[in-house]
Design brief:
Elements: E1 2-3, H1 15-27, H2 37-56, E2 65-68, H3 71-82, E3 88-92, H4 97-110, E4 113-117, H5 128-132, E5 138-144, H6 156-165, E6 169-173, H7 185-188, E7 192-196, E8 208-212, H8 250-266, H9 268-286, E9 292-294, E10 313-318, H10 323-334, E11 336-337, E12 339-341, H11 346-352, E13 359-363, H12 370-387
Parallel strand pairs: 1-11, 3-4, 3-5, 5-6, 6-7
Antiparallel strand pairs: 2-8, 7-8, 9-10, 10-13, 12-13
């Protein structure tokens, strides 16, 4: 199988990740639940992962790296823990439902008000709208770093300056960017970063987290066992146990640590350069197909790969072929895996006018090859020809 659905999850993982999970299964037990060797070794591994994640994202306090099961849980914990009755929040039409649905629930249950920054025809955010939507009760801006539909990269540094100017929090959904592009929370002005482990960090499913950069107190999302303060009727107030009730996913965290170490060894710049070479090769091979319509700023790919400012995603529709039919043809006839449809991001499809047929998304990874790209270009041309 040729796999181009890496924006959903990276299918091919580094061998180091697989080895780390196997080692954890054989050698680790619960972290923070005992004084014997397996528990202590597990605790050391968990702490090392917090330290490396904090450094990886340009934060300065490993105790404020909170492990979750995925980015959706991280965003729920953050949004429900930060926003209260009558608060106002600014988000964007590019958001995933992991942001939209918590916001809608907060709107209906607590009276939180929301404004959404729009996009232009290429999927670029209308940055002038951020300040336009700020009110006296605005508490936070929530924005995804890379759109999982278009691949457009948000100018987080600009948004961070707006947030700082008005003394409001900046929450970033880094589901598509964590591990793919460099993130320095302090430099960019990010207060809270939510990430998943199973995409560009090359970790296993069931991993993710929150990184809090500053003195921000989130309400507890769930309560229960913590391994400490067992006679306290309340969840411990200190991070990270404040937000980590129950047993951690030790095997998943071990795999996540190995993924981070793999990226650090290969180098984020080297990984990104390869991915940008692949998407440029892919774009150049299909851009002249009759009837093709792209859903991103194609000018961003008209430069050398090392200068491309775009996510590892190429999204388009092919003439009158519904995206689902294109995906089916590629999967059934060529064994090429892509993603079609709405991608859990309804507002961007309203903006693109693609609610009916969705969009075909091809998402690339460091482990894809030029041969796979060339085979896929050939397949798309054959499909386009057969539908003409």
């Amino acid at each position: 199988m040729i796999y181009f659905d890496n924006a959903a999850t990276t299918f091919k993982k580094p061998k180091e990740v697989i080895d780390a999970i196997n080692y954890a299964l054989l050698n680790y037990t619960n972290s923070g639940r005992g004084a014997y060797r397996a528990a202590l070794d597990s605790g050391r591994m968990v702490y090392e992962t917090r330290v490396k994640l904090a450094a990886f994202f340009g934060s300065n306090d490993p105790s404020k790296v909170i492990f979750t099961s995925n980015a959706t849980e991280a965003l729920n914990i953050t949004l429900f823990g930060l926003l209260h009755a009558k608060d106002h929040v600014i988000s964007t039409v590019t958001e995933h439902n992991s942001v939209l649905r918590p916001l809608y629930k907060l709107e209906s249950s607590k009276g939180v008000s929301i404004d959404f920054v729009g996009i232009d025809e290429c999927g670029r955010l209308k940055y002038d709208e951020f300040e336009k939507y700020i009110h006296p009760n605005t508490k936070a801006i929530v924005v995804n770093h890379i759109s999982n539909v278009s691949g457009e990269i948000a100018d987080i540094e600009y948004v961070g300056k707006v947030a700082k100017k008005h003394n409001i929090y900046l929450i970033v959904d880094a589901s598509q960017s964590a591990g793919s592009i460099d993130i320095d929370m302090t430099k960019l002005g990010i207060d809270i970063l939510c990430f998943t482990g199973h995409k560009s960090l090359f970790g296993p499913g069931g991993t993710g987290g929150i990184v809090i950069n500053g003195d921000i107190l989130l309400d507890t999302f769930k309560v229960g066992g913590s391994g400490v303060q067992s006679f306290n009727k309340c969840q411990p107030s200190e991070y990270p146990t404040r937000l980590e009730a129950g047993t951690l996913n030790i095997m998943g965290i071990a795999g996540l640590l190995a993924g981070i170490e793999f990226i650090n060894k290969v180098g984020k710049e080297n990984i990104r350069k390869k991915e940008m070479r692949l998407i440029k090769r892919f774009y150049e091979g299909i851009k002249d197909i009759e009837g093709i319509k792209f859903y991103f700023d194609t000018d961003s790919l008209e430069c050398e790969p090392e200068n491309i400012r775009h996510g590892s995603i190429v999204s388009f529709n092919l003439g009158k072929i519904p995206s689902a039919d294109l995906a089916d043809c590629l999967g059934e006839d060529y064994d090429i895996a892509i993603r079609a449809g709405a991608h859990c991001a309804p507002l961007i499809h309203e903006a693109f006018n693609t609610k009916k047929d969705g969009i075909a998304r091809f998402s690339f990874s460091y482990f894809n090859t030029e041969d796979e790209v060339d085979e896929t270009i050939k397949a798309i041309k054959e499909i386009a020809s057969s539908f003409s």
